[in-house]
Design brief:
The complex is a heterodimer of chains A (about 475) and B (about 350).
Chain A lengths: L1 E3 L1 E3 L2 E3 L4 E5 L6 E6 L3 H8 L2 H9 L3 H17 L2 E3 L2 E3 L1 H12 L3 H16 L1 H9 L5 H5 L1 E4 L2 E7 L4 E4 L12 H5 L4 E4 L6 H13 L6 E3 L4 H10 L2 E5 L2 H4 L8 E4 L4 E5 L11 H9 L9 E6 L3 H12 L20 H15 L4 E3 L2 H5 L3 E4 L2 E4 L2 E5 L15 E6 L12 E7 L3 H9 L3 E6 L17 H5 E4 L11
Chain B lengths: L2 H25 L7 H10 L3 H4 L36 E5 L7 E5 L2 H10 L12 E6 L5 H12 L4 E5 L2 H9 L3 H21 L3 E6 L1 H10 L9 E4 L6 H11 L4 E4 L1 E3 L3 E5 L11 E3 L5 E7 L2 E5 L5 E9 L4 E14 L9 E7 L13
Parallel strand pairs in B: 3-4, 3-5, 5-6, 6-7
Antiparallel strand pairs in B: 1-2, 8-9, 9-10, 10-15, 11-12, 11-13, 13-14, 14-15
Helix pairs in contact in B: 4-5
Classes of the chains: A alpha/beta (about 475), B alpha/beta (about 350).
Chain lengths: ~475, ~350
Amino acid sequence: MRHLPILRQGRPYYSVDRARAIHHRTKEPFVEISQANVGLIRRDFLQLEAVAGRLSDFTSEELIRLCASAAGHFANSTLPLGEGTQTPQEYVEATSATTGLPYNMVRRNQAKIEGVLANMAGVLRGLTRNLDLSILDRGHGEAAGTVVSYFRRTDSLGVVLPSNSPGVHSLWAPAFALKTPLVLKPGGQEPWTPYRMIQALIRAGAPPEAFSYYPADHAGAGEILRRCGRGMVFGDVSTTRVWARDPRVEVHGPGWSKVVIGDDMADRWPEYIDVIAASIAENSGRSCVNASGVWTPRHGRAIAETLAAKLAAIQPRAADDPEAAIAPFADPGVARRMNQMIDGILAEPGAIDLSEAAGRGPRLAEHDGCAYLLPTIVWCDSPSHPAANKEFLFPYASVVEAPVAAMPGILGPTLVCTAITEDRGFQQRLLAAQHIGRLNFGPIKTIQIVWDQPHEGNLFEHLYARRAFQTMLEPATA
Amino acid sequence: MSAQLRERVRAHKEALDAHVREIVAWHFNPETGCPFWLDFAARAGWDPRKEIACYEDLDRFGYFEDEWLRGGPVRQWVPKGLAHLPTYIFETGGSTGVPKARIQMNDFRTDYEQFSHTLPGTAFPRGADWLMVGPSGPRRLRLAVEHLAQFRGGICFMVDLDPRWVVKLIKWGEFEMAERYKQHVVDQALTLLKAHDNIQCMFTTPKLLEALCEKVNLRKLGIRGIFCGGTEMTPQFHRFAVEELLDGIYFAPTYGNTLMGLATHKAPVPEDNWAIIYYPPAPRAVLEVVDPNEPATLVPYGATGRVRLTTLTKETFIPRFLERDECEREAPCEQYPWDGVRNVRPFASLGSNVVVGVY
């Protein structure tokens, strides 16, 4: 069996404590993963300041070039994996094995990560609002005619990662290019992608000590977030709640992303049904940027029935089937519990799962030894129904009728809001909303990410701060 | 198992059976027993002194319930035959609700004197002073470690940590405060270590040991042996401590609790892969590993099960107590010709609400 070691500032370490991730179909152990004890993590932190200094020796331009080179290695090279190696195809198969994602979805996520690494210059331009990155190398400089100085707020970025979808790893990648050592706690079922990204960066010439990789339990995760000057945490509400008021930690909880339709466009809803369906179902509905709600002032029932019929065509297929469009749950017990939870919510009058009648069959399905939750479209007759603002780890969306005048306040926290409207007044209210993360005007899939736009907080602002600065010295010549 | 070891196992079993008869005779004699067990026997309708002939017969008592140890009257546990002695009360748990309590007169001294014989003199020199950094207060550890130091001719310095407060901080999500409290404890320990040259031996918990070693090299401060316990220890922690924290200091991991006493560890060998293997202080206490669903049945050697404790001293009789721990069953060895336990950890089936190993 493969064994993934801990990386202690780049050095592989094989722990006595090991966790196992199982193959989602065979249920057999697929990989052993060394587990880091809390003391080991704490001890390594004593050296992190020096590591940050080592990354500062690189110019931003060098780091961007290095990311571009790593992009190629991530996508195409055979890279170290524990005491062995891993080809790109083996990466796809391994990620599919432990997460349940079909190969085609893993490849799409792989391409997304490759894209971020390859286009790091553009990503940083977006994050820094086109700052001349040599200012970060020198610590000060001139931007738009103003003297500016930036300093790094932290010696490390700690990231507690999820297992739902590999694409999420593109979010921390820019930290490396921003000269910040990374301390990663991978998800229990998805240890592969961060490990491979690290190996690709090392192969490209990054200093290995810039990467710490600590598979660990909750205590280890907490220690990473407490010890790092800045952190990111992914997870459900119960996981992330404790960090919600800690300004050092960016919380990536449920997205509750939505498509909203204005009064002006509501009668034209059939034109947008494909965008809405894709927002709900792409990537097997596993991302926080998948829509879990469709809010419209009228035609709600018709929209819901049409979506249900359209998504009912999505049925389980083999992991290597290029047409596979839904992933099974790595742990069937999770699927069963989630299904029961949904049944419980729907037991309250006022909401109905329209997908079964549309030809989907039972929501909880078994195929080739795997448990699936098939796409579920719920029609709610009131925004206050408990099914109206729920998010699950599969293609689930509620369709709710609500007056546009009540939006966006009634939407609640929304990571991505695709607003199909040309109503300027409504647009202005959406622009002013504090509880909307990303805002798309027009029929743009919620899941369509532009990487030069900051996602759920700006990583540059998370890692860097601007200080007041004056100098009487001559500017250094390049 | 060699023939010689088999013979030692058999001899130990004979001695255990004799010890069981002696302890049962004491606890169920109206002149010497405690009110709890005398009342138990009166209600049970059978006389344990006549019907308990060997260790296996203790199954007749059923499973000891930890609720019996919560609340009063605590004097129901004082054996009449020992009522003339000064009595201590030691508590375990108690972060919320009424803690479990065990009365003792001399058991803690006996246990730690026995344990003392397992400590190498080079690492725990006679006459060396000790530093105890860990839970004291109502816990047995406080007097026990001090007695151990005194038994070995030393004086014991003390730094207290209140685990009930730490558990509360963790439950409230006050991690920063918990960390500050830990540093407060560590700072006191470092002050003592730097001020007293003759402190060469320590007792502390795994977490406090890590925290101390983040600040100093204990070997350079004169520490030669560390006796570590109080909370769960994993094989990885064992390895980490030996390879990265201790710089050659002798490490004695232990498993103990108020109800059992103190189990000593088997000296590590490479084939154990850093497993922590403990043997109970037989015949005063017996640890067994049983099927969680059929707790009357022992699991095979090497298999995982729930820890079942039987305590057999004149001060305390606790038959068939199911601990909140699980582990693998370990075979007898030359040093300890009776069953041991490997890699003790919280019992998974009891759920995740128990806050463990936080101090």
